[in-house]
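Journal club prep — side note

Before the paper discussion, L.F. wants everyone to see what a predicted structure for a comparable chain looks like in token form. Sequence:
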Amino acid sequence: MADNLDGWAVVDDRDPSIQYDEGLWRPVKIGPTNGVGIDTTYNGSVMQPVIRGGMSFKFNGGDGRVLASVAAATERNITDETIMNSMFSWECFIDGRQVDSGALSDIEKGQNNYELCRWRGFSIAERALTVNVSTQEWPFGIDRIEYVPAVRGGYTIVDPLNPRISTDAFRNETSREVRMNANGSKMTYEYFGTAVACHGKIEGSTLPSSSATYQVDGEDPVSFDVPGSSGIETTGLQLFETPTRTSGAHTLTVTYTGSQARMPLVVSSLIVQEDPNVPFLLPLPVHRPVTQVLQVSALVGTQVHRLRLARRDLVARRFR
């Protein structure tokens, strides 16, 4: 049974809908390599071939990819590409058609969430994925399959700890936030939809405002401000919203352009609009500093008082 991860169907390596060649695969609880980039394996497990093996998976959907944990050739002191390929190789097919696959020589470091193969430009239909792997005890394991399902929702709220988000910044697992405070720090997120709204937090420290940029699909970066604070925390603040694009697979890159002496960029959630006919959620509740709340309350109170006076004058005129 596929999970739903920000609008993509995600199938774990141990899902019974995946068919493995009997006796040629073994489950491994923890990925065979340390996390690099995106942190850990999905659900903390991978399926590892003994020597060689095939797997197949049928689904109703379109574009997708297979992610794995793979050790790097440099970590095994192997530089000859012919030897590499004889020790570890793979190929992927959709409906019998071979699709793009990574190359072992491209893997500079052992990593989880390595994109073993990817297919794009496939319309929604009943499809069949086949992966064939040959390995001579090379540390490797299938982690998960992701694909665009036939049935989608209107929008999705994405947690910053989502494994599809890659960042070199600090992830706070307690508050479930990504905190960027070093110039050039990045957060990258691949999504399927039409637009993304980013919500964050302004910390209570007395720091001046800073700045950041966002890019979609490598286009020119768009700058946005990260407000400063007088010492009171503000949460649920919308930092930016991308323009609407055609529905499909896109890549969002957020870059912090401030410094450690300025307000950090803290991302608390992303809202992905999947269907252009379904509007974004109403803005998340914004918890403002007490001074701002008092100012707003005073303004509302003044307006209410004026309305009451105007209504009293109108009633008085009617009875004159």
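L.F.'s comment for the group: The chain has two helices and 23 strands. Keep this in mind when we get to the figures.
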